[in-house]
Amino acid sequence: MANGLLERARQAAAEYEKLNLSRTAVFWAEKAVCLSNGAFEDIYCLANALYRDAQYRRTIHVLERDSHLELHLSCRYLGALCDVAQKDYESAIEKLEAEATATESYSLNVRAPTSKCNTLLSPEDEKFYAGRQAQAQAAACCLRGIAYQEMLNMNVARNCYVEALRLDPLCYEAWDRLTGNSVIGEASERDVCNLALGLLRGEFSDDDFKSLKFLYDMRLVCKCQLSDQLSPPAALKNSSDVVACQALQCYTKYDVHAALDCSNRVMERDPLHPFCMLVHLACLVALEKKNELFILAHEAVQDFPEQASSWYAIGCYYLTVSEFEKARLHFSKATSLDPNFGQAWLAFGHAFSADGIHDQANTCYFSAMKVMPGCHYPLVTVALYHSMNHDPVLARKYLKEARELAPKDGIVCHERGTLAYQQGNYRKALEFFMEALDVCDKSVQDKVSSSSWEPLLNNIGHCYRRLKDYDSALAFHHRALALDCSKASTHTSIGFIYALRGSFDKAIEHFHKALGLNRQDIIAVDMLEKMANCLAEDESFLEGLLCEKAGDDQETAAAAAGVNCSLDLDAVRGDMDMLASVSKPIDSDVKYLPEHGLQQAFATPNVRGGNVAYGGTPMIMAPFGAAAASTPAYLYHRATPSSRGGLSFDGSLPSPSTAGTHDDGMDLD
Fold first, then answer.
1. Residues near 416 by Cβ (< 8 Å), separated by ≥ 6?
2. Strands 617-620 vs 611-614: parallel, antiparallel or unpaired
3. What angle do CA 635, 594, 645 make, to 5 degrees?
4. Which end of the chain is more exposed for a tag (fewer CB within 10 A), N or C?
5. In terms of Cα–Cα distance, which of 575, 473, 478 is closest to 524?
6. CA 415/CA 400 separation, integer angstroms
7. Is 213 exposed, middle or buried (0-12, 13-18, 19+ CB in 10 A)?
8. How far apart are CA 373 and CA 187, in angstroms?
9. Which residue(s) pair with 614 in the sheet?
């Protein structure tokens, strides 16, 4: 009778656990423990049911009886899961780590397993995990990596993830965290990918292996600007993960419209897909679709108020409509909920930078560097900060590190060109700008067509003007004008070159167009006024202006012309240099975007790698994020927070509570 009841209790516990009726499963599992006099199988079943019911402390207490935690990997793993759920990461590491090798490290290139985890299997484990021993050990290593990552120890976390892939190449969580959070650089990601695929070769048919190889490669290919378009196997072309990677690849290539089309396909089928949601956010911000962004952020915070990505979405909306203080409040909430959210740290820095709070912005950028050591975007933002503070040595240092991580990235090349230009090395600057243009041309194939690259073309024009190649300078300024005809600075640049060449009619025409677009264009106003004054005094002003070509100074030119010329060419030259520096690399309204889902390292306002100057400070976002656009505030109804932490649709987006957020004035490091 007892045995019959025992089997029935075990069966009921298992069945109701599958049906997610945790309380019922706990009840019958506890009875099975009593009937079997504490059999390991029943104790583990009870602990697992308690874990599913979120009774974490009670789970650990059950496992600690009779020293099960010390004897069995399965119990240590379940106990560590409870510790991670309670954010007790040190305890989780203690359960999973072998004491003798706790501080050792190992290379990414070592192919033989050299586990640092305490993953020895007891006889009971061997029976329990029959046929799944490698998966159990890989899961333990991966969980240990998660604990280290939450403690911001990225080097050890990386080693744990690599070890998990050695033990079981199908442990996708380890691969996702390595690539998604940019824990390692592109070269190391490729090495780990080859390691995993090498271990799997021979276990699948040729066709299946090709599909498997695509699934691993797609996370690498979608982040490379010069990669070929993803071509998934027919059976996988409708996978949400595959289409999301296609969206990211389009975004990486600065084709925001195509990226939005792909992300829309995923969001229609799976509106809560974490990886795609961040790409979708970035596209909406880049294209200034404020209504869609508002609705998405509203729904996210209503459905998932406990997730950092929901508050990040609200911050992106406020950043887009230039309400920077509110944006900081929500980015602070996002980084409090998830300190490893690199995209949120980048966006947090942009929100500070937009209000001219540059030191706090730089602190946020350094925080992004800590959590995304394999991503070059934080390095570029820090380099721009030092460049703005006239520290070219440190700026060059960080740009060099960024280039090592992403040697073919157009933004890095462009920022190096800007730094060289500011130091007066115009030929070197031109080389960097042309390299960036070549990368962009290859990435989009049909040549630069996005207005995001307008500053690059204008900067090339400034270099040619400085080198006195006025024909080439005009050609690139006109190309920039074709991409974005709404920039007053482009018309001013063209007008200045025409003035240098003596074509006053064309110069005046472009200065007037610049003023039509921006009445506050000081350079255009100054040029028109002084040209009119000089021409009214003597038409020989032309000779004085053209003396710049021969390298003569203004006084010599005026003396040769015999007039009292009031045009200060040196001052105008300085104004034009200011124009060039304002057009920092990819300085467009479309900023970069961040990466993968909440756990991925792509996600931050602005379309991939773009940067903009708010309050004098350039802004850069990382892949997988939303872009920070400079746009007028959008009119929305006032809102009332709902009981769930969201808001009813008759108002504005919700505000996080002050608890657990960063104060704007405090050190965020």
1. 399, 403, 432
2. antiparallel
3. 50
4. N
5. 575
6. 11
7. middle
8. 13
9. 617
623: number of Cβ within 10 Å: 32
Q: Which residues pair with 618 in a beta bridge?
A: 613
Distances (CA, A) of 252 to 44, 382, 597: 47, 21, 16
Q: How far apart are CA 581 and CA 466, in angstroms?
A: 13
Measured in residues, the chain has a length of 669
Q: How far is CA 478 from CA 102, 418, 485, 486, 487, in A?
A: 61, 20, 9, 12, 12
- Confidence tier at 228 by pLDDT (50, 70, 90): low
| CA R_g for the chain | 30
Helix (H) or strand (E) holding 138: helix 133-150
- Measure the CA–CA gap between 564 and 621, rounded to whole angstroms: 50
Q: Which amino acid is at 115?
A: S
Taking 3-state DSSP, the helix, strand and coil percentages for the chain, each rounded to the nearest 5, stand at 65, 0, 35
- Sign of the C-alpha dihedral, residues 408, 412, 414, 418? negative
> What secondary structure letter does DSSP report for 112?
S
Q: What is the mean pLDDT of residues 400-422?
A: 87
**Average confidence (pLDDT) over 486-498:** 91
Residues of the chain with pLDDT > 70, as a percent, come to: 70
Which residues contact residue 132 at a Cβ distance below 8 angstroms, ignoring those fewer than 6 apart?
none
Identify the H or E element spanning 620. Answer: strand 617-620
DSSP string, 5-64: HHHHHHHHHHHHHHTT-HHHHHHHHHHHHHHTTS-HHHHHHHHHHHHHTT-HHHHHHHHH
pTM of the entire structure?
A: 0.72
Coil, helix or strand at residue 173: helix
Per DSSP, the three-state class of 124 is: helix
Nearest alpha-carbon partner for 606 in 592, 622, 623, 588: 592
Q: What is the mean pLDDT of the chain?
A: 74
Q: SS in 3 state form for 321-347?
A: CCCHHHHHHHHHHHHHHCCCCHHHHHH
Phi, psi of 620 (to 5 degrees): -135, 140
Looking at per-residue confidence, does 653 or 308 come out higher? Answer: 308
Instruction: Please name the residues in contact with 153: beta carbons below 8 A apart, sequence gap of 6 or more.
Output: none
CA distance 41 to 32: 10
- Cα–Cα distance, 645 to 119 (Å, whole number): 42
Q: What is the C-alpha to C-alpha distance for residues 402 and 389, in angstroms, rounded to an integer?
A: 19
Q: What are 20-29's pLDDT values in tens digits?
A: 898 999 999 9
Alpha-carbon gap, residue 192 to 203, rounded angstroms: 18
- Please report, as a single letter, which amino acid is at residue 102: A
Q: Where do we find the tokens 């399965």? A: 74
Say how far apart CA 647 and CA 652 lie, in whole Å: 7
Q: Tell me the C-alpha to C-alpha distance, in Å, between residue 360 and each of 513, 570, 666.
A: 38, 35, 8
The dihedral over CA atoms of 359, 363, 365, 366, expressed in degrees to the nearest 10, equals 130
What angle in degrees, to the nearest 10, is found between the helix axes of 410-422 and 377-388? 10
Rounded Cα gap, residues 513 and 472, in angstroms = 21
